[in-house]
Amino acid sequence: MPVLHVPHRLQRAGLILLAATALYAGPAQPAYGATADEPGWTAEPAAGQAVPRTGDARPYATRPYFYMAGTAGTVLEDRLALANTTDQEHTVTLRGADAYNTADGAFAVRPAGSTGAGAWISFGAGATVKIPPHTRAVVPFTVTVPPSSPPGDHPAAVVATGAGREVGVRVHLRVGGPTLAALTVEDVAVRGRGAAAVVAYTLVNRGNVALAPELSLRVEGRFGEVPGRGARALPVELLPGQRVELTEPWPGAPVLDRVRVSVTVTAPGGARAEGSASAWFVPWRAAGWTGLGLLGLGGTTLAALFLVRGRRTRQDPTGGEEPGGTSVRPGPPPAPEHQLTGASR
Question: Which of 124, 159, 202, 326 could cross-link to 187 by cystine, CB 3.0-4.6 Å?
């Protein structure tokens, strides 16, 4: 692609404008949605023919992401739309990237050097695009599915980089063949107490398709069933082979009980898994004050017993009190004995 030669003064002015734009936008942060709302330029799937929605007379509709499907060994094609909304020319570089779940379940893409579906994406000679001011460019790309690719979902993204930021447009790619929806629930634990109680758990996608899971909590205590949580959709798309660590708020945790918490997760396609954990709920502060009160009462009682026993042992035994505590009073002196000899006088 030809490069225009710009005078030195204009280059310096352009650098100043570029620096000011970077300061305004903040540090570079990858945005993995379909479009970018920041000023400058946008990236999204090119509009395709679609059935108009009710009340919408437009013959074309934008797509939130790329959806592509084919068998192993095929070559798929699509187009990316780039729009420059400024008065300055922008240079944008394009690449494919593997997608994955972060530890908390967010969608992210790997840096350069992808080895999965991201490496199947190619822009050919259009990997670097110069977009004139107020201009929209449509860039074609291909996805070459290797012949040995396993069936199922292969998450990826098209990443556009320019003006100090990145925009990732998701690519939902499915290779034809048998699919399996399967998951497991692991490492269930209860953390916190009261209104701050949460149930922590780990979800693992054991199948070959992306899952949209739903979760419910069932809790049984020593005194009967405890309020849990009804089924609700989780705000995460669990990609094949990925592991995420999540927490579920549990405001209905008891104050005093021993409970067993069961976490049940389901997903379309027949995926279902369950994990459980046991936990004690004890109001330790109240128990501590009660224990201190009982300890103080016991100490007072023991001290009183020692005091009473000490008073008894300090009294003189000859003064009318036996060691057993029984009082003895002196009786009258014994009568003199008379000796009887034979007959009376």
Answer: 202
